Amino acid sequence: MDSSDNEQVRLLGKWASPFSNRVDLALKLKGVPYKYSEEDLANKSVDLLNYNPVHKKVPVLVHNGNSIAESLVILQYIDEAWNNHPFLPQEPYQRALARFWCKTLDDKILPAIWNACWSNEKGREKAVEEALEALKILQDELKDKKFFGGETIGLVDIAANFIGYWVSILQEIAGLELLTIEKFPKLYKWSQEYINHPVIKEGLPPRDELFAFFKASAKK
Amino acid sequence: MGEVKLIATHESFPCARIEWSLKIKGVEYEYLKEDLSNKSDLLIESNPVHKKVPVLIHNGKPIAESLVILEYIDETWKDNNNHLLLPQDPYDRALARFWARFIDEKCVMSVWQACVAQQGEEKEKAVEAALETLSLLENQIKGKKFFGGEKIGYLDIVAGWLSYWLSVLEELGEIELVNAERFPFLHEWANNFINTSPIKDCIPPREDVLAYFSFGINYVRSMHGTQ
């Protein structure tokens, strides 16, 4: 593969962002070579403003000059543009369930956990209760599967990178116990399979750097 | 192709989206009217996570979230009536999904906020924000009959509330957002959309939508201590 292949696919991202990381993971799982640019959101690049004028956010995927924003939209695009290692099953009902869970992750589950980790004394109890409830419904969906996608990593697994990796760091910083082996044995087991998956492992940002990044944010 | 049921309320535009797409595809379905103040066991069992409408139940299997249901309908009945809702090309599909999320996340919220905002500076700012989101949609529809091209597509269905529910919100909020002068293309699209079958055959009576939104607005205003 020559360098022009790399230039065909470009990702504008932020290394600490789970949304940006979703796209890294997806491209790596598909074996698609790409060029990555780290964006400074306090000083947005001309490219970012050109490629995502509506939201001016990362991640943005650029493929053959076409730009796509919104991580879940990008994930589905990647799955449809590259046929290998499909992220979605063939059967429409199973596909609908996967899409439902991706949306529910973003609309309900991630916000609940994020709120709990950044909550102050006053709102903490309620926020933690909601976070635990969110993790429970996710575990109920996992059931006894190795991954949400079954035997292989699927769309929901990629979208749940925050649960599989970021949560353990954030809960440690916040001094909370949310996703633990005692509270959610199946989901915890999934998280371990996930972060040890050969492609995922290579695609996640280093734990100590992520820890330091969020710890510094917590101090502000 | 199997038994299709829809749990819905007729004032809800996410529910209308599902009816429109089923009718476009020529799919027969049973309409199960839901009372959201007294949720049915079926709704709670079928959508335990959100307990909201619409829920499509196909051969006993439930699907929730209107955007998810739309894609399911398109994939399950893909050969019906030679009318695909989503485009074929991956990039065009991505654009449609992007704009659908924009409509549901930014547009709906900003219009609602403009509607409930108190008169004065708060309202002016909220109206400005809403107009900004609508101007982006104006650019998307420019030069096209429908967002889907010659035929109604996924994005038309998602944006469909602008052709009818919006005017109710404008009335209740004492604001004017979409008109022929400000957004000529969106205005024309709205007229085309609402007057096309099967859309025009399944829109709820205006007074029901008025009552439904009034209730919500009064609730929000009472939370702010205004009436």
From TrEMBL, chain A:
<dbReference type="Pfam" id="PF00043">
    <property type="entry name" value="GST_C"/>
</dbReference>
<feature type="domain" description="GST C-terminal">
    <location>
        <begin position="91"/>
        <end position="220"/>
    </location>
</feature>
<dbReference type="InterPro" id="IPR004046">
    <property type="entry name" value="GST_C"/>
</dbReference>
<dbReference type="InterPro" id="IPR045073">
    <property type="entry name" value="Omega/Tau-like"/>
</dbReference>
<feature type="domain" description="GST N-terminal">
    <location>
        <begin position="7"/>
        <end position="86"/>
    </location>
</feature>
<dbReference type="InterPro" id="IPR040079">
    <property type="entry name" value="Glutathione_S-Trfase"/>
</dbReference>
<dbReference type="Pfam" id="PF02798">
    <property type="entry name" value="GST_N"/>
</dbReference>
<keyword id="KW-0808">Transferase</keyword>
<dbReference type="InterPro" id="IPR004045">
    <property type="entry name" value="Glutathione_S-Trfase_N"/>
</dbReference>
<comment type="similarity">
    <text>Belongs to the GST superfamily.</text>
</comment>
<protein>
    <recommendedName>
        <fullName>glutathione transferase</fullName>
        <ecNumber>2.5.1.18</ecNumber>
    </recommendedName>
</protein>
<dbReference type="GO" id="GO:0004364">
    <property type="term" value="F:glutathione transferase activity"/>
</dbReference>
<dbReference type="InterPro" id="IPR036249">
    <property type="entry name" value="Thioredoxin-like_sf"/>
</dbReference>
<dbReference type="InterPro" id="IPR036282">
    <property type="entry name" value="Glutathione-S-Trfase_C_sf"/>
</dbReference>
<dbReference type="InterPro" id="IPR045074">
    <property type="entry name" value="GST_C_Tau"/>
</dbReference>
<dbReference type="InterPro" id="IPR010987">
    <property type="entry name" value="Glutathione-S-Trfase_C-like"/>
</dbReference>
From TrEMBL, chain B:
<dbReference type="InterPro" id="IPR004045">
    <property type="entry name" value="Glutathione_S-Trfase_N"/>
</dbReference>
<feature type="domain" description="GST C-terminal">
    <location>
        <begin position="89"/>
        <end position="212"/>
    </location>
</feature>
<protein>
    <recommendedName>
        <fullName>glutathione transferase</fullName>
        <ecNumber>2.5.1.18</ecNumber>
    </recommendedName>
</protein>
<feature type="domain" description="GST N-terminal">
    <location>
        <begin position="2"/>
        <end position="81"/>
    </location>
</feature>
<dbReference type="InterPro" id="IPR036282">
    <property type="entry name" value="Glutathione-S-Trfase_C_sf"/>
</dbReference>
<dbReference type="Pfam" id="PF02798">
    <property type="entry name" value="GST_N"/>
</dbReference>
<dbReference type="InterPro" id="IPR004046">
    <property type="entry name" value="GST_C"/>
</dbReference>
<comment type="similarity">
    <text>Belongs to the GST superfamily.</text>
</comment>
<dbReference type="InterPro" id="IPR036249">
    <property type="entry name" value="Thioredoxin-like_sf"/>
</dbReference>
<dbReference type="InterPro" id="IPR010987">
    <property type="entry name" value="Glutathione-S-Trfase_C-like"/>
</dbReference>
<keyword id="KW-0808">Transferase</keyword>
<dbReference type="Pfam" id="PF00043">
    <property type="entry name" value="GST_C"/>
</dbReference>
<dbReference type="InterPro" id="IPR045074">
    <property type="entry name" value="GST_C_Tau"/>
</dbReference>
<dbReference type="InterPro" id="IPR045073">
    <property type="entry name" value="Omega/Tau-like"/>
</dbReference>
<dbReference type="InterPro" id="IPR040079">
    <property type="entry name" value="Glutathione_S-Trfase"/>
</dbReference>
